[in-house]
Design goal:
Length: 307
């Protein structure tokens, strides 16, 4: 299994380490605009692998060295302003970066699965899909995935876990839609042990707290890296091992809640071919409206860039 990580900043380097530590690749290629950084990280991670039970090769390289990758992780981004208030501020610059990087990556690895973590995740995943499938007929909507609200759902479940006294893994509650300010919790279908979780005002406050926690971290550190790296590991592991986990990730939406031609997060079954299929969660009227609002927000981002 060959995995390439594109963009070795705070997030990309942490993702690379987590994937290597988990033994998810036989070959891990790190690409960064400043190759010296990728080279140093590759040496550091390769030496760390000696303390694990796994054998893999970790190396830096140019874009052509990513050829024949099974999975390509996109973690490259324009610099994030310290006072950034919305991920959408990165949309234009990051789209321009993708227009440069994705065509050669798709040509070198026409059968790869792309997993994007760069922001704004939804609009950028849509752009990556449009660019990549111009280069390879094999790259369809199932093979371009964004980490999306998997991260937000983990934050929300952590808060619910503390309040309910139940392990987060036993709570089925999803944040859906945009990985951004318009995201919402599908509380009408949230359960634990088959019992519905009451959508009381306290739970709604938890949604907002989960949403704001990323900005609390960002204001202090200038980035978030741990939750997103473990989210990426979960997606990659499900692909590598064909685990078929149900994960709320960003994919192309084609008719769900009357939304078309837009990438948003819905529960998806993830395995060796990428997204095997989307699950259509039952939403109440307010949640359907919230999902459609997410679509309008993301479509506006896409249109602004295209214009």
């Amino acid at each position: 299994m060959k995995i390439s990580v594109i963009g070795i900043g705070k997030v990309g380097s942490t993702i690379s380490f987590v994937l290597a530590k988990g033994g998810l690749a036989s070959e891990l290629v790190l690409y960064n605009r400043t190759r010296e950084i990728a080279h140093a990280e590759a040496i550091d991670i390769q030496q760390a692998v000696a303390l694990t039970p796994y054998r893999l090769v970790v190396r830096d390289g140019e874009l052509e060295d990513t050829a024949n990758s099974d999975i390509i992780v996109i973690a490259v981004s324009a610099p994030m302003p310290k006072n950034m208030r919305n991920r959408n501020e990165l949309c234009l610059q990051n789209t321009q970066i993708m227009q440069t990087l994705i065509p050669p990556l798709a040509r070198y690895s026409p059968n790869a699965i792309f997993v994007n973590v760069s922001n704004p995740v939804d609009a950028l995943t849509y752009q990556i899909l449009q660019i990549a499938r111009q280069q390879s007929e094999e790259i369809n909507w199932q093979r371009v995935i964004g980490t999306g609200t998997l991260i937000d759902s983990a934050r929300f479940r952590d808060l619910l876990s503390t309040q309910l006294g139940i392990h987060p893994a036993d709570i089925n509650a999803y944040i859906l839609g945009e990985h951004g300010d318009s995201q919402f919790a599908a509380l009408s279908s949230a359960t634990s042990g088959g019992a519905l979780i009451d959508a009381n005002p306290l739970r709604q406050q938890m949604v907002e707290k989960a949403k704001q926690s990323a900005w609390t971290i960002f204001k202090a550190k200038g980035y978030t890296n741990y939750t997103v790296s473990l989210a990426m590991e979960m997606i990659v592991r499900s692909i590598v091992e064909d685990s078929r986990y149900t994960l709320p990730v960003t994919v192309l939406i084609d008719g769900y809640c009357d939304v078309f031609n837009c990438c948003l997060s819905v529960p998806c079954v993830v395995g060796r071919q990428g997204v095997h299929y989307r699950l259509e969660t039952r939403l109440n009227e307010a949640e359907v409206s919230a999902f459609q609002n997410c679509a309008r927000v993301v479509q506006q981002q896409i249109q602004c860039v295209n214009l």
